[in-house]
Automatic annotation (TrEMBL):
Source taxon at top rank: Bacteria
Keyword flag Membrane: no
Gene Ontology MF: a single term: oxidoreductase activity
Record-given protein name: NADPH:quinone reductase
Keywords: NADP
Domain Enoyl reductase (ER), first and last residues per copy: 10-333
């Protein structure tokens, strides 16, 4: 099989496409013929060595994939050979991820792709959608479904990003009113296309004042991408008993909180890293995401706020560069024809 691999940390130039044996699934595993692979910021960060030493002699990056099951190991039930699936945490704990023609994953990490859902959508789920689900269920609501967030107002900081977009779509499906912060008219249009009822440009004027004008009693939950930068704003606009759910450290690795001002509002902070989320929570997320897809509530494409950028497997390095460079939307690798 062809795979884009690297054997030392460094810039995207360390990636090269090679031929490797097709892996065989073990007990409880399935092999998936990859059609599309999604690229996430963690892919280039791992490649650069920012997340620690390389765990394997060579790595084919990529946590998210979509494709077709083509072999099952002993005891692997729930999907059949020929089923269309999406995978998550594909490279986590193993050397070969989604930037390869075949991947082997535990059967629980190969999720059936609902009828009518594209491989592009399947490869865009994984890290963004599961992270978004965990963020939205960090407060009093533990599962998402139509009406689960009815009456709640949610602030999505950075609404044009991949996780932000997934959070908007899932929150709207669950009945919430969403406010998204953005930094340009282009990003505002994408956040609205995803379903945000309101957008606030945090680069102009008083963002906190604009948010409080929309939600005078405060927002119930904040999806936060830059906690160090936004700590004061988050505290100011959060409702009593609100939740700030953090999934990234954009803008700074350390944050300072005013203890009295924070506990006086009975605020809850939840930090989310997909790689250490409990398996039961991952399973709950895949069930809810599948339901949202079946309802047509989770989509990709510019008309849904997620412009797609496609690269062939041979240009995996360019795909990584696009994500590192801040490409708006979703970067995909076309591994094989549909």
């Amino acid at each position: 099989m062809r795979a884009a691999i690297y054997s030392e940390p460094g810039p995207s130039s360390v990636l090269r496409v090679v031929e490797r044996p097709v892996p065989e699934p073990g007990a409880g595993e399935v092999r998936v013929r990859v059609v599309r692979a999604g690229v996430n910021p963690t892919d280039w960060k791992f490649r650069q060595g920012a997340m620690g030493e390389l765990a394997f002699a060579e790595i084919a990056p990529g946590q998210d994939a979509s494709g077709v099951v083509d072999a099952r190991g002993e005891g692997a039930t729930g999907v059949a050979v020929g089923d269309r699936v999406w995978t998550y945490l594909t490279q986590h704990g193993r050397p070969y991820g989604s930037a390869s023609e075949y991947v082997v994953v535990p059967v629980a990490q190969a999720v059936p792709l609902p009828e009518g859902a594209s491989f592009d959508l399947g490869a865009s789920l994984g890290v963004p959608a599961i992270t978004a689900h965990r963020l939205l269920t960090s407060g009093p609501v533990s599962r998402l479904a139509p009406g689960a967030l009815a009456g709640r107002t949610i602030l999505v900081q950075g609404g044009a990003g991949a996780v932000g977009n997934a959070a908007i779509q899932l929150a709207v499906w669950a009945g919430a009113t969403v406010i998204a912060t953005i930094s340009s008219d282009e990003k505002a249009a994408l956040a609205r296309a995803a379903g945000a009822a309101h957008t606030v440009d945090y680069t102009t004027g008083d963002a906190a004042g604009q948010i409080r004008a929309i939600a005078p009693d405060g927002v119930d939950l904040i999806v936060e991408v830059a906690p160090a930068v936004n700590a004061e704003l988050d505290r100011e606009v959060a409702a009593l008993g609100g939740t700030i759910a953090v999934y990234a450290n954009n803008g700074g690795d350390e944050m300072t909180l005013s203890v009295r001002a924070t506990f006086s509002k009975n605020l809850r902070y939840q930090f989310v890293l997909l790689y250490t989320v409990d398996p039961d929570l991952l399973a709950a997320a895949t069930e809810d995401i599948t339901a949202a897809i079946a309802d047509g509530a989770l989509e990709v494409g510019e008309e849904h706020g997620v412009p797609l950028h496609r690269f062939p497997l041979e240009q995996t390095a360019a795909a990584h560069d696009a994500v590192e460079g801040g490409a708006i939307g979703k970067v995909l690798i076309e591994v094989a024809p549909e």
